[in-house]
Amino acid sequence: MKETANVSGFMVRLLAGAATGAAVGLAFPDWALWPLLFIAYVPLLLALRGQGAWARFAIGLAAGTAMNLAILGWVQHTLITMSHFSPGLAAGAFFIIAAFHGIPQGLLGLIHGPLRRGAGLAWLIAVPTAHSLLESHFPRVFPFLIADGLHAELPWIQIADVVGVRGISWMLVATSCALVALWEFRQGPWIRLVRLGGIVLAGWLLVVGYGHWRLATIADVPVERVLKVALIQPHYTTDEKQLRGSRRRPMFDRSLAATETLRERELDLVVWSEGAFPWPFPYDSEGRSLGGELSRATHHVRRLQSLVRELDVDLFAGSLRRPGDGRRSRNSAVHLGPDGEVRGMYDKRILVPFGEFMPLRDFFPELADSLPGVGDLDPGERAGVFSLGDTSLAPNICYEAIHPDDVRRSAQPEVDVLVNFTNDVWFGPTKAAEQHLMLQIWRAVELRIPMIRATNSGISAFVTATGEVSGRTPVFEEAILEGSVEVRRLDSFYREWGDLILHLLAFGSGAHFVWVWRRRRLLEGDGQKGVSSALP
User: Fold this and answer.
1) Residue 429 lies in a domain
2) pLDDT tens for residues 125-144?
3) Cβ pair 109, 64 in contact under 8 A
4) Given this model, what pLDDT does residue 218 score?
5) Do 192 and 256 fall within a single domain?
6) How many domains does the chain have?
7) Which domain holds residue 22?
8) CB atoms within 10 A of CB 169
9) 271: alpha, beta or left, given left = phi > 0 and alpha = psi -120 to 50?
């Protein structure tokens, strides 16, 4: 009977962990129930109390798995359409992927007990710090953070220019920790409840107050330049993207025709999406022509150059590029000046595992072709900057923009605008496109740099330095989006220092944990000596 009760109790705790995952999932698109983020971790933290190490890991893993099952549902569509998995196999693979992405929560559960025992009340800082470090640095393919669900609430997210999105995730988990502590203190002195509750409330009031103040002050900063930009969204389908050679010409003609409609516009820049030029671009990384090696592509490059000269406008376009030295192709972006000449090239540096390359392929070459739909690309070596007169634009391609550290490093001091090239057609009519835009909005706020986002199938968008989406396209439609990008000189602590505050919290939490542990060892040693001296 007791064993049955223990099993039932453990199952309840697993369900409590899963409730945390479900709450986070409901805060993301399409549900967008973002207030749940403030209490999401309460069920998990309550379920972890009093459990052994492996039980805590299992409960945390249940939370992480449920979270990723709720967020990453579009993975099944991609496995079926691109890798030709059967629905049953895709469902099984999706569950494994969700469980792997849930390991950070499992590890949080594992260390939750020692942190609570060894840190005293400082666990209210140590646990959210550990969570943020695990959430940020565990090697996941899709590194979602729980704060991402706040992306559309402008007053709440402006503090990201100080602490980054990881810092806001820390605050959300710290809020759940404080709520659990308040529950545990409910029988104690009321002053303790008031003090802790007041700290949490004051903290969020400061965050929102800072947000309103920052929005107002940014609006008052003079605009130095305004770029008139048009985004071409051609909507190449998955079937079209899998065509080869001359059969891709209708795709290119579609983008070319859309660009030709801009003849009467006064524009500074036209941006094509990732892979919009549908053949390998016949130029090297220095902008030198590779001659007749890729004759079909060379012919179409000349058509594009001729149109750019006629429009007298700069044009950025995504394309593959073959280095010409026998190495693998690269996912690239090219800058054509108003004279049609190549002004710059950029090669994507962070490739999508299992999408653009197969992990471990250099050690086991046979892996390169082991899974249908997986590319075999090489990463680029350096960040890039495209210049339009006095305006510097930092390109990044698709998946790169969801990595805060990489985008921050590429945003050199002179960078005025971020430009993202994306193709989300692989994920089908799912919430993936909305989630991808959600993740990228944070880069504009953290760095205080406006962002241009050109996609193949949506959502193309203009994002201001405050995270406001000032224009966007529908998904799975051809579209042209025109907008104005305002360039201002804005300060950002995060742009300069990154996650310094989070790292200081990690150092302080670790030092406190070691101090408490050593103090307890000394006290235990003194106690044992006292017992020994009392013996006859």
Assistant:
1) yes
2) 999 999 999 999 999 989 99
3) no
4) 97
5) no
6) 2
7) 2-220+499-525
8) 25
9) beta
Largest CA distance in the chain: 103
Pair (47, 157) in one structural domain: yes
Pairing between β-strand 314-321 and β-strand 269-272 as defined by DSSP bridges: parallel
483: CATH: 3.60.110.10
Residues 521 and 448 in one domain: no
Assess whether 438 and 520 both reside in one domain: no
Check if the beta carbon of residue 505 is closer than 8 Å to that of residue 511: no
Q: Are residues 507 and 459 in the same domain?
A: no
Q: Do 246 and 336 belong to one domain?
A: yes
Q: How many CB atoms lie within 10 A of CB 134?
A: 18
Rounded Cα distance, 355 and 27, in Å: 27
Average pLDDT, the chain: 89
**Confidence check: pLDDT of 531 > 50:** no
Same domain for 238 and 216, yes or no, is: no
Q: Check: CB of residue 453 under 8 Å from CB of residue 470.
A: no
Q: What's the pTM?
A: 0.92
Cβ(133)–Cβ(502) below 8 Å: yes
Task: Give per-residue pLDDT as tens, 298-340.
Answer: 889 999 999 999 999 999 999 998 876 667 889 999 999 999 9
- Sign of torsion over alpha carbons 98, 428, 424, 170: negative
Do the beta carbons of residue 274 and residue 422 sit within 8 Å?
A: yes
Read off the DSSP letter of residue 235: -
Half-sphere exposure of residue 87: CA atoms within 13 angstroms, side-chain side = 0
DSSP 326: S
Which residue, 416, 472, 474, 422, is CA-closest to 444?
416
- pLDDT band of residue 514 (cuts 50, 70, 90) is confident
Phi, psi of 152, deg, nearest 5: -90, -5
